[in-house]
Amino acid sequence: MNETMILHHYDNSPYAEKIRLMFGLAEAPWQSLLSPVWPPRPNLDPLAGGYRRIPVAQLGADIFCDSSLIATEVAALCQRPELYIANASAEAKALIAQAEGPTFFAAVGSVPKGRLLGMMLKRFGPLGSYRFIKDRAGLLKGGSSRQAGPEQSQRLMEALFAALEARLQQQQWLDGEQPSLADFSCYHPIWLHLNCSGRPLAAGAEVQRWFEQVTAIGHGQRREIDQAAAFAAARQAEPRPLDESLSSVDEPLLGQAVSIAPADYGTEPVSGTLVGAGAERLILARDSQEFGRLHVHFPRADYQITALD
Ligand SMILES: N[C@@H](CCC(=O)N[C@@H](CS)C(=O)NCC(=O)O)C(=O)O
Question: What is the whole-number distance in angstroms between the Cα of residue 1 and the centre of ligand 1?
Answer without folding.
Answer: 27
